[in-house]
Amino acid sequence: FVLRPIDMAVLSGTVWFVTMMAAYGMVEASQAPVLTPLGVSIGVLLPIATCVLLERLRQRERDLAESENLFRRSMDDASIGVTIISTDGLYQKVNAAFCAMTGYSEAELVGRGFQDITYEADRDRLVGYCKGISEGRIRSLKAEKRYVRKSGEVFWAELSIIVLSDPVTGRPDRLITQIEDIDLKKRTLEAIAESESRWAFALENGQQGVWDVDKPRGRLYTSPTWKRMLGYEPDDVSIDGGDAWLELMHPDDRDNFLAVNYAHERGDTEWLEAEFRLRHKDGHWVWILDRGKV
C-alpha cells in the first residue's frame, strides 16, 4: 500500500513523540499506546505549522526580492543621477545616468568619496549638511552644488537627499541622492541676468524710461528712470498695475495713442511709436516719445 502525506505525518509524529518521551525516561515503553493520540495530534499539527511558517518565510523572501528588483529598476533606468552613499561619504552604488553625467565608470565611483568630485568651493557648505545628517537634525534636503567631471569640466546640479535610518538603532545608515544636471539652465539664467544688467545700465545712463505691460495678467512694470521722469520715487507703486498709467495721459492725446497702440497689437505695424503728454506728479505736463513692440 502507499502512505499518503498525512499518514506519514501522523506516523512520524507518533514515533517521534513516543521515542522522545521514552528516551528521557518520562514514560515506560509499555505506556506508549496510551500516548498515541497525543503523538498523532503532534504528528498532524507539527508538519502543518512548519509548512505555514516556511510559506510565510518564502513569501517574505519573494516580497523582499520584488521590492529590491523594483528599486534596482527604478534606480538603473532613471533618467537622472541616483546614488547610494554611506554615512562616511563613500559611494556604495551609482546608476548609469550619474556615470554619464560625471564621465566616471561605476567601478571608478564605488568606494570613492563624494567630496572627491565636488567642486572645491562647495565642499565646506556640504560639511555643514553632513554634520546635520549625522546628528539626526536633517532627514532630507535639496541643494545646488557643482561637480567636477572626469574631464575637469565643472557643472551645476540640483541635489536631493533622503536619509535612511538603521531600523534597530534609528541612527542614519545611508543616503539616497538624486542628481539633476541644471548646468544649462543655470548658465542661461546667468547670461540673461548679465544681459539685463547691461541693458538696464545703458537705459539708465541714457536717461530712457522703460515700461512693460503683461496684458494677460494685467501687470505693469515701470523702470526707476521712467518714474523719475514724472516725479515719482523708484519704489512708488501708485502708478503700477494694469492701465493705471493711462490715467496720467493728457485727454487730447489718449484717443490717438490708443488707435496707434491697437493697430500695432493687430500686427499692422512692426513698431509702436507715438508722442503724447503725461502728467507730472506736481501737475505739469511732460512730452514723451514712446517706442515699443509687442
> Strand arrangement, largest sheet?
2-1-5-4-3
Strand content: 15-25%
Structural class: alpha+beta
Mean pLDDT: 79
Radius of gyration: 39 Å
- Total number of β-strand segments? 9
Question: Can you give the helix content as a percent range?
Answer: 40-55%
How would a textbook summarize the main sheet?
5 strands, antiparallel
What are the key terms here?
294 residues; five-stranded antiparallel β-sheet; two-stranded antiparallel ribbon; single chain; alpha+beta
What do these coordinates show?
With 294 residues, this protein is α+β, with helices and mostly antiparallel strands. 46% of the residues lie in helices and 22% in strands. The protein contains 8 helices and 9 strands. It has helices at residues 5-23, 32-76, 96-102, 106-109, 120-134, 183-205, 224-229, 251-265; strands at 81-86, 91-94, 140-148, 154-165, 172-181, 211-214, 219-222, 272-279, 285-292. Strands 2-1-5-4-3 form a 5-stranded antiparallel β-sheet, with helices on both faces. The protein has a two-stranded antiparallel ribbon with strand order 6-7. Strands 8-9 form a two-stranded antiparallel ribbon. Strand 3 (140-148) and strand 4 (154-165) form a beta hairpin. Helix 1 (5-23) packs across helix 2 (32-76). The radius of gyration is 39 Å and the shape is elongated. The termini are far apart. The mean pLDDT is 79.
